[in-house]
Amino acid sequence: MPVADLVSELSIDPDSSQFRLASGWLERAGRELGIPTEQIARLDVCLNEVLANVLDHGGASARSAPIGLRLARKRDPDGADATLTVTDAGTAFDPLAVLPRSRPQTLAEATPGGLGLVMLRANADSLSYVYAEGRNRLTFGVRWSGLQCSTQDPPSVR
Amino acid sequence: MPIDISDVNEKLRRITLTGRLDVPGTEAIVIKFAAAATAGGRRVVVDLTAVSFLGSIGIRALISNAKAAQSNGERMVLFIGGNETVAKTLQTTGIDALIPMFADATEAEKAALN
Fold first, then answer.
1. Residue A116 located in a structural domain
2. What is the Cα–Cα distance from A141 to A137, expressed in whole angstroms?
3. Global confidence as pTM
4. Tally of structural domains, chain A
5. What's the ipTM?
6. Is B27's Cβ below 8 Å from some Cβ in A?
7. Contact assignment for A48 to B59 by CB distance below 8 Å
8. How many domains does chain B have?
9. Which domain holds residue B30?
C-alpha cells in the first residue's frame, strides 16, 4: 500500500524571472522529500519547459494570475515516485494531445520550437493533464527503484 | 550566465558558456552569443563543458547560430568534454546529429576547421 504523499507547494509570479526561484525550490524541496538527485534533475528539465510553454503560449490570461507548483512524493513496495503539478490560468492547452514532430535530418531542415515537448516526454515517466475551473493542470512524474529510495529517503519517512 | 569569447587564431574562435542555459540564462547571452558565432569570419567551437543545465531555449540558440554560421559558409561545432547532462539532452533531442559534438577539444577544433 502506498505511503501517504509528502508534499511541498510554491506559488510564483508568471514571469521568467521567477524560473530560477522555482528551480531552487524544487531542488531544496526535493532533497527534503528524499527524492534522488538525478530524479530532481529530470523534474527540473520538465519544470523549465512547462513554465516556458505557459508564458510563450498561454496568452494574456497566463500572465494574469500566479502559477501554482505542487511537489508530491510517495512510496510503494516496489519503489517511489515524485510528481510535480503545474497549474496556470493560461489558454487551455493539452500537451499530451500534440503529435511528436519528426526529427530533422539536416541542420538546414531544423526549425526552432517544439523541442520543449520532446524534452518533457523524454524526462517524464508519467504525464497527465486536465483543464478545470479556468486553469490548466499539468502533472509530470518520475519513478525510481526501491533500492534508490532506501538510501535517499529522509529518516522521517523510512 | 557568463559567456567568454576567445579567438584562438585567425581561423578559429572559441565561445565558452557557463552555468544554466535555461530561459533567464539564455536570454542574458543570446544576442552576444549570436554576434560572436556569426561575426569575424572564423570557424567556431562552442565549449559547453561548464553548462549545468540545457533547456530547449538554449538548444534553439545553438541551432540558430549553427544555421547562421552555415549560411555564411562557416562552421560551428560543440565541445562537451565529459558533460553527461548536456550530452544526454543533445542526444535526446537529436541535435547531436545536426551539430557535430565532441568530447575531445582537439577533435572539436579539427572538425571546426575541416
1. yes
2. 13
3. 0.90
4. 1
5. 0.90
6. yes
7. no
8. 1
9. 3-113
